[in-house]
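FAQ

Q: What does a record look like?
A: Structure on top, sequence underneath. For example:
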Protein backbone atom coordinates (compact mmCIF):
# COMPACT_ATOMS: atom_id res chain seq x y z
CA UNK A 1 0.00 0.00 0.00
CA UNK A 2 1.14 3.52 -0.63
CA UNK A 3 1.95 5.94 2.21
CA UNK A 4 1.40 9.47 0.99
CA UNK A 5 2.89 12.29 3.08
CA UNK A 6 1.40 15.65 2.82
CA UNK A 7 4.85 17.09 2.23
CA UNK A 8 4.64 15.67 -1.34
CA UNK A 9 1.24 16.90 -2.57
CA UNK A 10 0.42 16.97 -6.26
CA UNK A 11 0.98 20.23 -8.13
CA UNK A 12 -2.39 21.88 -8.70
CA UNK A 13 -3.29 22.85 -12.25
CA UNK A 14 -5.88 25.16 -13.81
CA UNK A 15 -7.57 22.52 -15.96
CA UNK A 16 -10.69 22.49 -13.83
CA UNK A 17 -11.35 26.13 -14.62
CA UNK A 18 -12.80 24.95 -17.93
CA UNK A 19 -14.15 21.60 -16.73
CA UNK A 20 -16.96 21.91 -14.22
CA UNK A 21 -17.10 19.77 -11.10
CA UNK A 22 -20.66 18.65 -10.33
CA UNK A 23 -21.63 18.05 -6.72
CA UNK A 24 -24.45 16.74 -4.58
CA UNK A 25 -24.87 15.67 -0.95
CA UNK A 26 -26.77 12.53 0.00
CA UNK A 27 -29.35 12.49 2.79
CA UNK A 28 -26.82 10.86 5.15
CA UNK A 29 -24.31 13.68 4.65
CA UNK A 30 -22.00 11.95 2.16
CA UNK A 31 -20.74 14.32 -0.51
CA UNK A 32 -20.41 13.24 -4.14
CA UNK A 33 -18.27 15.15 -6.65
CA UNK A 34 -18.11 14.28 -10.33
CA UNK A 35 -15.74 15.46 -13.05
CA UNK A 36 -16.75 14.47 -16.58
CA UNK A 37 -13.97 13.69 -19.05
CA UNK A 38 -15.12 11.78 -22.12
CA UNK A 39 -11.83 11.41 -23.99
CA UNK A 40 -11.68 7.68 -23.24
CA UNK A 41 -14.21 5.15 -21.86
CA UNK A 42 -12.54 5.05 -18.45
CA UNK A 43 -13.82 5.97 -15.01
CA UNK A 44 -11.99 6.48 -11.72
CA UNK A 45 -13.86 6.05 -8.46
CA UNK A 46 -12.34 7.28 -5.20
CA UNK A 47 -13.74 7.20 -1.66
CA UNK A 48 -11.95 9.63 0.65
CA UNK A 49 -12.26 9.45 4.44
CA UNK A 50 -11.35 12.48 6.52
CA UNK A 51 -9.24 10.33 8.79
CA UNK A 52 -5.47 10.05 8.72
CA UNK A 53 -2.53 9.88 11.08
CA UNK A 54 -3.32 13.43 12.24
CA UNK A 55 -6.33 11.95 14.06
CA UNK A 56 -4.40 9.24 15.91
CA UNK A 57 -3.44 9.25 19.57
CA UNK A 58 -0.19 8.27 21.24
CA UNK A 59 0.11 4.53 21.68
CA UNK A 60 -1.93 3.82 18.55
CA UNK A 61 0.17 5.45 15.85
CA UNK A 62 -0.20 3.77 12.48
CA UNK A 63 -3.78 2.61 13.09
CA UNK A 64 -5.15 4.62 10.13
CA UNK A 65 -2.80 2.75 7.81
CA UNK A 66 -3.49 -0.59 9.48
CA UNK A 67 -7.23 -0.12 8.98
CA UNK A 68 -6.57 0.66 5.32
CA UNK A 69 -5.06 -2.82 5.05
CA UNK A 70 -8.00 -4.40 6.87
CA UNK A 71 -10.48 -2.86 4.43
CA UNK A 72 -9.43 -5.56 1.94
CA UNK A 73 -10.04 -8.42 4.40
CA UNK A 74 -13.71 -9.08 3.76
CA UNK A 75 -17.20 -8.04 4.79
CA UNK A 76 -20.32 -9.85 5.96
CA UNK A 77 -20.89 -10.93 2.36
CA UNK A 78 -17.35 -11.19 0.93
CA UNK A 79 -14.19 -13.08 1.71
CA UNK A 80 -10.69 -11.64 2.37
CA UNK A 81 -9.16 -10.51 -0.91
CA UNK A 82 -12.40 -10.88 -2.87
CA UNK A 83 -12.73 -7.12 -3.42
CA UNK A 84 -9.47 -7.08 -5.37
CA UNK A 85 -10.36 -10.24 -7.28
CA UNK A 86 -13.68 -8.80 -8.48
CA UNK A 87 -12.07 -5.55 -9.65
CA UNK A 88 -9.35 -7.48 -11.49
CA UNK A 89 -11.95 -9.73 -13.12
CA UNK A 90 -13.73 -6.57 -14.32
CA UNK A 91 -10.51 -5.48 -16.01
CA UNK A 92 -9.74 -2.76 -13.49
CA UNK A 93 -7.09 -1.85 -10.98
CA UNK A 94 -7.49 -0.72 -7.39
CA UNK A 95 -5.51 0.21 -4.33
CA UNK A 96 -5.53 2.60 -1.39
CA UNK A 97 -3.24 5.02 0.40
CA UNK A 98 -3.05 6.63 3.81
CA UNK A 99 -1.81 10.15 4.46
CA UNK A 100 -1.51 12.42 7.45
CA UNK A 101 -4.81 14.09 6.55
CA UNK A 102 -6.90 11.41 4.86
CA UNK A 103 -7.28 7.83 3.65
CA UNK A 104 -8.35 7.08 0.07
CA UNK A 105 -9.58 3.93 -1.70
CA UNK A 106 -9.71 3.94 -5.50
CA UNK A 107 -10.58 1.91 -8.57
CA UNK A 108 -9.97 2.58 -12.25
CA UNK A 109 -12.31 0.72 -14.59
CA UNK A 110 -14.05 0.66 -17.94
CA UNK A 111 -16.98 3.03 -17.49
CA UNK A 112 -19.72 0.39 -17.51
CA UNK A 113 -18.13 -1.23 -14.44
CA UNK A 114 -18.60 1.76 -12.14
CA UNK A 115 -21.59 0.16 -10.32
CA UNK A 116 -19.35 -2.77 -9.34
CA UNK A 117 -16.88 -0.48 -7.57
CA UNK A 118 -19.55 1.63 -5.85
CA UNK A 119 -21.48 -1.40 -4.62
CA UNK A 120 -18.38 -2.91 -3.00
CA UNK A 121 -17.19 0.40 -1.51
CA UNK A 122 -20.61 0.88 0.07
CA UNK A 123 -20.47 -2.67 1.41
CA UNK A 124 -17.15 -2.22 3.19
CA UNK A 125 -18.13 1.22 4.46
CA UNK A 126 -20.79 -0.41 6.67
CA UNK A 127 -20.16 -4.17 6.76
CA UNK A 128 -16.43 -4.63 7.26
CA UNK A 129 -15.52 -7.70 9.32
CA UNK A 130 -12.34 -7.40 11.39
CA UNK A 131 -11.35 -10.76 12.86
CA UNK A 132 -8.51 -11.38 15.24
CA UNK A 133 -7.09 -14.01 12.88
CA UNK A 134 -6.94 -11.71 9.84
CA UNK A 135 -5.67 -8.81 11.92
CA UNK A 136 -2.82 -10.82 13.37
CA UNK A 137 -1.71 -11.81 9.88
CA UNK A 138 -2.00 -8.32 8.47
CA UNK A 139 -0.25 -6.48 11.30
CA UNK A 140 2.85 -8.52 10.48
CA UNK A 141 2.56 -7.36 6.87
CA UNK A 142 2.38 -3.75 8.06
CA UNK A 143 5.47 -4.21 10.23
CA UNK A 144 7.30 -5.70 7.23
CA UNK A 145 6.23 -2.65 5.24
CA UNK A 146 7.57 -0.33 7.92
CA UNK A 147 10.92 -2.13 7.90
CA UNK A 148 11.05 -1.94 4.09
CA UNK A 149 10.05 1.72 3.74
CA UNK A 150 11.75 3.20 6.81
CA UNK A 151 13.99 0.98 8.91
CA UNK A 152 15.99 -0.30 5.92
CA UNK A 153 16.45 3.17 4.38
CA UNK A 154 18.71 5.67 6.16
CA UNK A 155 17.23 8.73 4.43
CA UNK A 156 13.73 7.61 5.44
CA UNK A 157 14.90 7.31 9.03
CA UNK A 158 16.32 10.83 8.78
CA UNK A 159 12.97 12.09 7.50
CA UNK A 160 11.10 10.36 10.32
CA UNK A 161 13.43 11.95 12.87
CA UNK A 162 13.01 15.33 11.16
CA UNK A 163 9.23 15.26 11.46
CA UNK A 164 9.27 14.17 15.10
CA UNK A 165 11.81 16.86 16.00
CA UNK A 166 10.19 19.68 14.03
CA UNK A 167 6.68 18.94 15.34
CA UNK A 168 6.91 18.24 19.05
CA UNK A 169 3.26 18.77 20.04
CA UNK A 170 1.46 18.48 16.71
CA UNK A 171 0.49 15.06 15.29
CA UNK A 172 2.44 15.75 12.10
CA UNK A 173 5.40 14.62 14.17
CA UNK A 174 4.15 11.02 14.13
CA UNK A 175 5.00 8.66 11.26
CA UNK A 176 2.05 7.66 9.10
CA UNK A 177 3.14 4.02 9.18
CA UNK A 178 3.33 4.21 12.99
CA UNK A 179 6.06 3.59 15.53
CA UNK A 180 7.14 -0.05 15.63
CA UNK A 181 6.38 -0.42 19.35
CA UNK A 182 2.81 0.73 18.75
CA UNK A 183 2.37 -1.74 15.90
CA UNK A 184 3.72 -4.57 18.01
CA UNK A 185 1.19 -3.82 20.77
CA UNK A 186 -1.81 -3.19 18.50
CA UNK A 187 -4.81 -5.53 18.38
CA UNK A 188 -7.90 -6.05 16.27
CA UNK A 189 -10.05 -4.06 18.72
CA UNK A 190 -7.96 -0.97 17.92
CA UNK A 191 -8.75 -1.39 14.22
CA UNK A 192 -12.44 -1.88 14.98
CA UNK A 193 -12.46 1.26 17.11
CA UNK A 194 -10.87 3.32 14.29
CA UNK A 195 -13.41 1.98 11.80
CA UNK A 196 -16.31 2.75 14.14
CA UNK A 197 -15.00 6.25 14.90
CA UNK A 198 -14.30 7.53 11.40
CA UNK A 199 -15.71 5.32 8.65
CA UNK A 200 -19.13 6.84 8.18
CA UNK A 201 -20.76 8.38 5.09
CA UNK A 202 -20.88 11.82 6.69
CA UNK A 203 -17.09 11.66 7.10
CA UNK A 204 -16.49 10.53 3.51
CA UNK A 205 -16.39 11.98 0.01
CA UNK A 206 -17.01 10.07 -3.20
CA UNK A 207 -15.12 11.44 -6.20
CA UNK A 208 -15.81 10.07 -9.68
CA UNK A 209 -13.88 11.27 -12.72
CA UNK A 210 -14.03 10.07 -16.31
CA UNK A 211 -16.47 9.21 -19.08
CA UNK A 212 -19.63 9.52 -17.03
CA UNK A 213 -22.78 11.63 -16.91
CA UNK A 214 -22.94 13.37 -13.50
CA UNK A 215 -26.65 12.76 -13.00
CA UNK A 216 -26.11 9.02 -13.58
CA UNK A 217 -23.34 8.95 -10.99
CA UNK A 218 -25.57 10.72 -8.48
CA UNK A 219 -28.25 8.06 -9.00
CA UNK A 220 -25.74 5.27 -8.43
CA UNK A 221 -24.34 6.99 -5.33
CA UNK A 222 -27.85 7.35 -3.93
CA UNK A 223 -28.62 3.69 -4.69
CA UNK A 224 -25.55 2.27 -2.99
CA UNK A 225 -24.58 4.77 -0.28
CA UNK A 226 -27.62 6.74 0.86
CA UNK A 227 -29.10 3.96 3.01
CA UNK A 228 -25.91 3.76 5.09
CA UNK A 229 -26.77 5.58 8.33
CA UNK A 230 -24.73 8.59 9.33
CA UNK A 231 -22.98 8.55 12.70
CA UNK A 232 -21.78 11.21 15.07
CA UNK A 233 -18.10 11.85 14.36
CA UNK A 234 -15.75 12.36 17.28
CA UNK A 235 -14.93 15.99 17.96
CA UNK A 236 -11.40 16.98 17.08
CA UNK A 237 -9.43 18.98 19.60
CA UNK A 238 -7.32 21.94 18.43
CA UNK A 239 -3.78 20.71 17.82
CA UNK A 240 -1.36 23.59 18.06
CA UNK A 241 2.39 23.26 17.67
CA UNK A 242 4.50 24.68 20.48
CA UNK A 243 6.43 27.78 19.51
CA UNK A 244 9.96 27.06 18.31
CA UNK A 245 12.57 29.48 19.60
CA UNK A 246 15.84 28.20 18.21
CA UNK A 247 17.53 25.68 15.94
CA UNK A 248 16.78 22.05 16.69
CA UNK A 249 19.44 19.52 15.70
CA UNK A 250 19.85 15.78 15.65
CA UNK A 251 22.26 13.28 14.14
CA UNK A 252 21.38 9.74 13.12
CA UNK A 253 23.90 6.92 12.85
CA UNK A 254 23.09 4.33 10.16
CA UNK A 255 24.98 2.18 7.65
CA UNK A 256 25.46 4.24 4.50
CA UNK A 257 28.09 5.05 1.91
CA UNK A 258 27.37 8.79 1.97
CA UNK A 259 26.12 11.25 4.55
CA UNK A 260 22.86 13.17 4.17
CA UNK A 261 21.28 16.35 5.48
CA UNK A 262 17.66 17.42 5.77
CA UNK A 263 16.70 20.93 6.88
CA UNK A 264 13.14 22.02 7.61
CA UNK A 265 11.82 25.55 8.20
CA UNK A 266 8.40 25.86 9.81
CA UNK A 267 6.10 27.76 7.46
CA UNK A 268 2.33 28.20 7.24
CA UNK A 269 0.02 26.33 4.89
CA UNK A 270 -2.75 28.02 2.94
CA UNK A 271 -5.61 29.18 5.15
CA UNK A 272 -8.92 27.41 4.54
CA UNK A 273 -10.60 30.82 4.22
CA UNK A 274 -9.50 31.76 0.72
CA UNK A 275 -10.54 35.37 1.32
CA UNK A 276 -7.58 35.82 3.65
CA UNK A 277 -4.32 37.19 2.26
CA UNK A 278 -2.46 34.25 0.73
CA UNK A 279 0.43 36.10 -0.94
CA UNK A 280 3.03 34.55 1.40
CA UNK A 281 1.86 31.02 0.61
CA UNK A 282 2.17 31.37 -3.15
CA UNK A 283 5.50 33.13 -2.76
CA UNK A 284 6.76 30.18 -0.68
CA UNK A 285 5.57 27.85 -3.43
CA UNK A 286 7.56 29.83 -6.00
CA UNK A 287 10.58 29.99 -3.69
CA UNK A 288 10.67 26.19 -3.39
CA UNK A 289 10.46 25.92 -7.18
CA UNK A 290 13.32 28.39 -7.72
CA UNK A 291 15.48 26.42 -5.32
CA UNK A 292 14.64 23.01 -6.72
CA UNK A 293 12.25 22.72 -9.64
CA UNK A 294 14.58 21.79 -12.53
CA UNK A 295 18.15 20.86 -13.37
CA UNK A 296 18.89 24.60 -13.67
CA UNK A 297 17.45 25.45 -10.25
CA UNK A 298 19.70 27.16 -7.74
CA UNK A 299 20.50 24.23 -5.49
CA UNK A 300 21.29 21.88 -8.32
CA UNK A 301 23.18 24.43 -10.39
CA UNK A 302 25.22 26.04 -7.62
CA UNK A 303 25.78 23.30 -5.05
CA UNK A 304 25.84 20.20 -7.25
CA UNK A 305 27.06 21.26 -10.69
CA UNK A 306 29.34 24.22 -10.01
CA UNK A 307 30.70 23.67 -6.48
CA UNK A 308 30.53 19.88 -6.57
CA UNK A 309 29.69 19.83 -2.87
CA UNK A 310 26.77 17.43 -3.23
CA UNK A 311 25.64 14.68 -5.56
CA UNK A 312 22.05 15.88 -5.17
CA UNK A 313 20.24 18.83 -3.61
CA UNK A 314 16.56 19.72 -3.65
CA UNK A 315 13.73 21.48 -1.83
CA UNK A 316 10.03 20.92 -1.22
CA UNK A 317 7.01 22.69 0.24
CA UNK A 318 3.43 21.50 0.71
CA UNK A 319 1.19 24.56 0.63
CA UNK A 320 -1.99 22.61 1.45
CA UNK A 321 -2.51 20.72 4.72
CA UNK A 322 -5.46 19.94 6.97
CA UNK A 323 -3.37 20.72 10.05
CA UNK A 324 -2.49 24.25 8.96
CA UNK A 325 1.27 23.72 9.28
CA UNK A 326 3.99 22.83 6.83
CA UNK A 327 7.73 22.77 6.32
CA UNK A 328 9.86 24.20 3.56
CA UNK A 329 12.55 21.55 3.41
CA UNK A 330 16.02 21.37 1.89
CA UNK A 331 17.73 18.04 1.21
CA UNK A 332 21.25 17.21 0.11
CA UNK A 333 23.57 14.24 -0.22
CA UNK A 334 27.14 15.53 0.21
CA UNK A 335 29.75 14.36 -2.25
CA UNK A 336 32.24 11.82 -0.97
CA UNK A 337 34.73 13.53 1.32
CA UNK A 338 32.55 16.61 1.91
CA UNK A 339 31.19 17.01 5.44
CA UNK A 340 27.57 17.90 6.14
CA UNK A 341 28.41 21.20 7.84
CA UNK A 342 29.95 22.45 4.60
CA UNK A 343 26.81 21.49 2.70
CA UNK A 344 24.57 23.02 5.35
CA UNK A 345 26.43 26.31 4.98
CA UNK A 346 26.09 26.11 1.20
CA UNK A 347 22.33 25.56 1.49
CA UNK A 348 22.00 28.50 3.86
CA UNK A 349 24.12 30.63 1.54
CA UNK A 350 21.66 30.03 -1.29
CA UNK A 351 18.83 31.20 0.94
CA UNK A 352 20.88 34.23 2.02
CA UNK A 353 21.43 35.24 -1.61
CA UNK A 354 17.68 35.33 -2.17
CA UNK A 355 17.15 37.31 1.03
CA UNK A 356 19.72 39.88 -0.07
CA UNK A 357 19.18 40.07 -3.83
CA UNK A 358 15.81 38.49 -4.57
CA UNK A 359 15.32 36.35 -7.68
CA UNK A 360 15.56 37.12 -11.37
CA UNK A 361 12.75 37.60 -13.85
CA UNK A 362 14.16 34.63 -15.75
CA UNK A 363 13.74 32.39 -12.71
CA UNK A 364 10.21 33.62 -12.08
CA UNK A 365 9.26 33.03 -15.70
CA UNK A 366 10.72 29.53 -15.58
CA UNK A 367 8.55 28.63 -12.60
CA UNK A 368 5.44 30.11 -14.14
CA UNK A 369 6.07 28.33 -17.43
CA UNK A 370 6.48 25.11 -15.49
CA UNK A 371 3.04 25.53 -13.91
CA UNK A 372 1.46 25.84 -17.35
CA UNK A 373 3.45 22.85 -18.64
CA UNK A 374 2.30 20.74 -15.71
CA UNK A 375 -1.28 21.52 -16.68
CA UNK A 376 -0.76 19.90 -20.07
CA UNK A 377 0.70 16.82 -18.42
CA UNK A 378 -1.94 16.49 -15.69
CA UNK A 379 -4.84 16.84 -18.12
CA UNK A 380 -4.01 13.45 -19.57
CA UNK A 381 -4.73 11.62 -16.31
CA UNK A 382 -8.32 11.10 -15.21
CA UNK A 383 -6.94 9.59 -12.01
CA UNK A 384 -5.09 12.75 -10.99
CA UNK A 385 -8.05 14.92 -11.84
CA UNK A 386 -9.96 12.96 -9.19
CA UNK A 387 -6.99 13.12 -6.85
CA UNK A 388 -6.92 16.90 -6.92
CA UNK A 389 -10.59 17.18 -6.06
CA UNK A 390 -10.40 14.58 -3.29
CA UNK A 391 -7.29 15.95 -1.63
CA UNK A 392 -8.59 19.50 -1.57
CA UNK A 393 -12.06 18.72 -0.30
CA UNK A 394 -10.92 16.20 2.32
CA UNK A 395 -8.41 18.68 3.73
CA UNK A 396 -11.10 21.34 3.96
CA UNK A 397 -10.33 23.41 0.86
CA UNK A 398 -12.93 24.06 -1.83
CA UNK A 399 -12.12 22.41 -5.15
CA UNK A 400 -12.53 25.85 -6.77
CA UNK A 401 -9.06 26.60 -5.43
CA UNK A 402 -7.75 24.88 -8.55
CA UNK A 403 -9.20 27.68 -10.65
CA UNK A 404 -7.10 30.27 -8.81
CA UNK A 405 -3.76 28.54 -8.59
CA UNK A 406 -2.16 29.52 -11.90
CA UNK A 407 -3.13 33.18 -11.68
CA UNK A 408 -1.91 33.37 -8.08
CA UNK A 409 1.46 31.91 -9.08
CA UNK A 410 1.72 34.26 -12.07
CA UNK A 411 1.15 37.24 -9.75
CA UNK A 412 4.16 36.46 -7.50
CA UNK A 413 7.06 38.90 -7.90
CA UNK A 414 10.69 38.95 -6.81
CA UNK A 415 10.09 41.16 -3.79
CA UNK A 416 7.51 38.73 -2.41
CA UNK A 417 9.88 35.78 -2.77
CA UNK A 418 12.63 37.79 -1.12
CA UNK A 419 10.27 38.79 1.71
CA UNK A 420 9.12 35.25 2.58
CA UNK A 421 12.70 33.96 2.53
CA UNK A 422 13.64 36.67 5.00
CA UNK A 423 10.52 36.14 7.14
CA UNK A 424 10.40 32.35 7.42
CA UNK A 425 13.80 30.86 6.52
CA UNK A 426 15.43 31.81 9.81
CA UNK A 427 17.15 29.82 12.54
CA UNK A 428 14.27 30.27 14.98
CA UNK A 429 12.15 28.13 12.65
CA UNK A 430 14.84 25.64 11.60
CA UNK A 431 15.29 21.94 12.33
CA UNK A 432 18.35 20.10 11.01
CA UNK A 433 18.90 16.34 10.91
CA UNK A 434 22.07 14.79 9.53
CA UNK A 435 23.05 11.23 8.71
CA UNK A 436 26.32 10.05 10.22
CA UNK A 437 27.27 7.18 7.84
CA UNK A 438 28.43 3.94 9.42
CA UNK A 439 30.30 1.09 7.69
CA UNK A 440 28.19 -1.04 5.39
CA UNK A 441 27.89 -4.76 6.13
CA UNK A 442 28.31 -6.65 2.82
CA UNK A 443 26.30 -9.53 4.27
CA UNK A 444 23.39 -7.39 5.42
CA UNK A 445 19.96 -8.35 4.11
CA UNK A 446 16.94 -6.02 4.16
CA UNK A 447 14.74 -6.49 7.24
CA UNK A 448 11.46 -5.83 5.49
CA UNK A 449 9.61 -6.57 2.29
CA UNK A 450 7.43 -4.44 0.00
CA UNK A 451 3.71 -5.11 0.09
CA UNK A 452 0.89 -5.01 -2.40
CA UNK A 453 -2.46 -6.36 -1.21
Amino acid sequence: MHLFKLLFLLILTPYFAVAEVHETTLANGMRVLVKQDSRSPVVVSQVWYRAGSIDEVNGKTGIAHVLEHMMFKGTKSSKPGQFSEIIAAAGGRENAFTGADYTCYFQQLEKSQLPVALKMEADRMQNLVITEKEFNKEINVVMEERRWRTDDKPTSKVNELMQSLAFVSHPYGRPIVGWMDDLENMNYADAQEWYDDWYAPNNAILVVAGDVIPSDVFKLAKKYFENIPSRQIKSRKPQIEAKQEGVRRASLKAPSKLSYIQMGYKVPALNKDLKQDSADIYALEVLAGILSNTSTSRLNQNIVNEAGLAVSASASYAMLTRGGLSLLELYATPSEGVDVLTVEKALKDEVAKIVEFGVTDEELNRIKTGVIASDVYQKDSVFYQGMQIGQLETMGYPHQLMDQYTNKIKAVNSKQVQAVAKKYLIDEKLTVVTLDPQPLDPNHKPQGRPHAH
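Q: Is there anything notable about this one?
A: DSSP finds 15 helices and twelve strands in the chain.
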